Amino acid sequence: MLSFDDHCAEIVAQTTAMAKLIEGADLATAVPTCPRWNLDKLTRHVGGAHRWATALVETRAPGFVAPERAVTDDHVAYLRDGADRLVAALRESGPAAPMWTWTDDRTAGYWARRMMNETLVHRADAALALGQEFTAAPELAADAIAEWLDLASVLLAGNQALRGSGQTIGFRTTSGPAGWTVRRGPDGVELLSEPVPADATLTGPATTLLLVLTRRLPSSHVEVSGDAGLAAHWLDNASF
């Protein structure tokens, strides 16, 4: 399991890698995995997210604060500066500092993890847009999968299409022992505390599984066992 320090270090590492990708690139390049976005908007989104999280951490915000509009002429510097400022704020606050988040984990540690995984997935968007290979350490991809599924149980609570009567979808990696199961109940989606045999299971390398889960790659890139229709329905409707 990744630590607070790991998350902070990876915010910088993932941002640096993304900055290297876009340096010298045509910022008008379309980002197919983020429809209607180009590299300019993707970069502004990531840098803006870092600055928004920085403001939350620095002020120990007790509630939601609207993000400011991202303005920059130097996209590489904008990315790197935003990550550096965010990590400085996180290290100053420490992981246990109380503040608003979307979930029950109302600490600065939540934002370290959320921003690391936000940056990781958007680095994938930049790489795929530029025709570059995207790889991530299995432990990073596994952390991103776990965090995404946990967040989904909150942000998809009102998604009627994902409500059910106990159907389960499993996610298993071939690059380690990690596994997760979500249950569709009448009140929404629940991430179970331990993986259990599921009605449908998606299995693949952690990085590939992450990209399929976040709809960056089609499900043909992983193995689907059990109820393929249930798995397809999840992927078609589980987005935020």
How many domains make up the coordinates?
Answer: 2
Class derived from helix and strand content: alpha+beta
Give the SSE string: HHHHHEEEEHEH
CATH architecture assignment name of the largest domain: Up-down Bundle
CATH class of the largest domain: Mainly Alpha
**Rounded Rg:** 18 Å
Largest sheet report: 5 strands, mixed
Total beta-strand segments? 5
Layout: helices, strands, pairs:
Blueprint: H1 4-22, H2 39-59, H3 75-93, H4 108-129, H5 138-155, E1 167-173, E2 179-185, E3 188-191, E4 200-204, H6 206-213, E5 223-226, H7 228-237
Parallel strand pairs: 1-4
Antiparallel strand pairs: 1-2, 2-3, 4-5
Q: How would you characterize this protein structure?
A:
- The chain is of the alpha+beta class.
- The chain has two domains: 4-129, Four Helix Bundle (Hemerythrin (Met), subunit A) (Up-down Bundle); 139-237, Nonspecific Lipid-transfer Protein, Chain A (2-Layer Sandwich), CATH 3.30.1050.
- The protein is built from seven helices and five strands.
- It has a five-stranded mixed sheet.
- It is globular and about 50 Å long.
- It starts with a helix and ends with a helix.
- The mean pLDDT is 96.
